Amino acid sequence: MTFAIIWFILWGVLWAAYFILDGFDLGAGMLYPFLGKSESDRALIRRSIGPMWDGNEVWLLTAGGATFAAFPAVYASMFSYLYTALLLVLFALIFRGVSLEFRAKDKRASWGKFWDIGFVAGSLLPALLLGVAFGNVFRGLPMDAAGYHGTLFSLLNPYGLLTGALFVALFLVHGAIWVALKTEGDLSKRALALASKLWFAEALAAVVFLIVTPFATKLVVNYLVRPWWFVVPALAVLALVLTMSYAGKGEVGLAFFASAATIGLVTATGLIGLYPNLLPSRLDAASSLTLFNASSSPYTLKIMTVVALIFVPIVIAYQVWVYRVFRAKVAAKDAETDSFY
Amino acid sequence: MAETVIGFSRLQFALTAMFHFIFVPLTLGLVWLVAWWEWKYVRSGDEKFLRMAKFWGKLFLINFVLGVVTGITMEFQFGMNWAEYAKYVGDIFGAPLAIEATAAFFLESTFIGLWIFGWKKISKKMHAAAITIVAFGTALSALWICLANGWMQNPVGYTLRNGRAEMTDFAAVVFNGTGWLIFAHTVLAGFVTAGFFVMGVSAYHLLRRNEIPFFKASFRTAAVFALAAGILVVGTGDQQGVRVAKHQPSKFAAMESQWETEAGAPYTVFAWPDRTNEKNAFEFLKIPKGLSLMGFHDGAAMIKGLKDIPREERPPILPVFLSFKLMVAFGFFMILMAFLGWLKGKRGRLESSPRFLRLMVWLIPLPYIVIQLGWIVTELGRQPWLVYGLMRTADGASASLVPSQVLLSLVLFTVVYGALGVVDIYLLAKYSRRGPDKDGGHIKVSHILEAEGGRP
């Protein structure tokens, strides 16, 4: 059972890492038409996430793969129940990746416009739908011993949409701060100003989410049983406030870390409330998938723990290194060579 | 209802897997050639090799991204469409997939970013190392997914417990010879694909007398690469035949349209299976004991015929049989062409052989087709099993899906993938025709010098 608990935590860590890392490049993608007034600004925004977006997205694949290996029943149910929503996420990610790579491969204006749409829509949809999906997981899915009783549209309930809006807002602020951090001059200033404006939407979504969640979900139960866990949502709120405070002072780097912490802590807040469920049922508690009834065998979990202990630190080490290689702000002359490949 | 869902899900898996595998082979092979040329540049300082790394690297990247994005689909489809399968075997099948993501995807995706954008940021050696790491990442990715596939062909290291297959021996899964052979055969076939791609594009330019030294050098390296890999493909294929004969007798019998169980079975060069009458409608040229030799490396060995396999456990015979025969025939033809290419290159006769060069341009698609045929043999030959001998394909599909859902996704995949395929071919053709940049890429030499501390 210990290994199942370890994997529940790792599962949360993988999702949090994905939201923090892909969050800023999804956010930058959503803001692309608003911040990218000129062709050179657009090139700079693309360039600011160019070296990283692909590596960031792999955290999603790893979260998916880890779900399969550690909680096969959750992997099977979550992805087949949320079939159409996940399908849209897949198409969005496909278009997004192709857009980023193909955008500069042809000089025709219509070509650029088409892939720009792919980039923006491909950034918005995953942010929104992953939020909707997690909102529905928090809320519990309409499933029982007979199977699943929902549709794509039943996912779009008010609480699911609220969580979707929260995710979008988190990533928008995160992305705006990233662009401010990675660019210079006017673009950087505009990005930071936009981050400060968007922060109010983020704070509003977060406050509404915190107020509504105890009524819409059972997440609060764990907190009432062990009140010291309230420190996590409290820290999330603190990180959120710090984001604004640093952004206001022009401390863009610190604002980015505060924003990253906000996303990580919001994810943790949800998962602490969820424990030990991974996929709760809102119809019948006995049909909930938990780390007890949905996990792989102790043997498999042990193997996977060893694998994770070896590879995850290595991955973190070289990703940190690559981020350091590209730590400089992207300059106009870099954007020229955007079309290099 | 359930049959329709299974039918659509099978079609969709076949479509998405086959489409994914249009891009993967070129990636698996071309990356090593690009790394090779970049290291040649680092060692010799000769700008020609830098231009080669950049030109072929550009084509590599156009292709690479589609391999990446179509791979995302594969990672999730087991849960989306094959939930019963995922539940039943996830304890053992999930592990290689998770390891593939953790050990390989990160490597590829992180270092490809470093390679694309790192020309001015890191040293030449580090840069060449980056593409080499990507190459290892692609191979590692292939290894883990082939180990997962190998387990479906030849399930090992598990026990049936708690209503599912649970892993009992990780080492057995990792050292499953079936998976390793599929891996070797697949990656080497990717090398052949890349070899023919480079030879074909080079032939196009040599025919037009464009950049002759550049494309002659590219052609010659690619010919050696394709020839060596092609020979090894045959070797690994032979070993696979032995394993299939032992572990998947129904697939082996279908590949050869062998109806009767017999010792010292002959190899039939060509035949036409007649399913209704359970015999071959005609047979052309039999080599005594050939099939026993192929399957067991023993002329007297007993070969199980289709008649001794219950009808409901036989794979579709005709497509498996035809795919196998065509794969083998085209495979040997490609080795011959690679050999001719190597010979003509060595003797300096490439530019004086326009007919040969024209043919090489037309042969660019052939390895792609042959690889698809190979996967048809492997996957269709596994039917009706999802996991050979353990779980039927019909039992693996998601119970919660309705036909309209899967039909919608199938249509969307067809349309979207079709469009992406067109765009990819357009871009590959465009950049292949354009040829290498005169100045070694859009990067200005002054930038490189700046980054390396030199003067512009």
Outline of chain A, from the CA principal axes? globular
Top CATH class of chain A: Mainly Alpha
CATH homologous superfamily annotation of chain A: Formate dehydrogenase/DMSO reductase domain
Q: How much β-strand is present in the residues of chain A?
A: under 5%
Topology, number of strands of chain A: 4
Could you walk me through the main structural features you see in this protein, from its secondary elements to its overall organization?
Chain A has 341 residues and is mainly alpha-helical. Chain A has one domain: Formate dehydrogenase/DMSO reductase domain (Formate dehydrogenase/DMSO reductase fold). Helix content of chain A is 78%, strand content 3%. Chain A is built from 14 helices and four strands. Chain A has helices at residues 2-35, 39-49, 53-70, 72-81, 83-102, 109-139, 152-155, 158-182, 185-216, 220-225, 231-249, 252-274, 298-325, 332-336, and strands at 143-144, 147-148, 277-279, 289-290. The longest helix of chain A has 34 residues, at 2-35. Chain B has one domain (2-247, 313-451). A two-stranded antiparallel sheet of chain B has the order 1-2. In chain B, a hairpin with a 4-residue loop joins strand 4 (267-274) and strand 5 (279-287). The radius of gyration of chain B is 24 Å and the shape is globular.
Please give a handful of descriptors for the protein shown.
A: 341 residues, mainly alpha, 3% strand, B: 456 residues, two-stranded antiparallel sheet, 8 strands, 71% helix
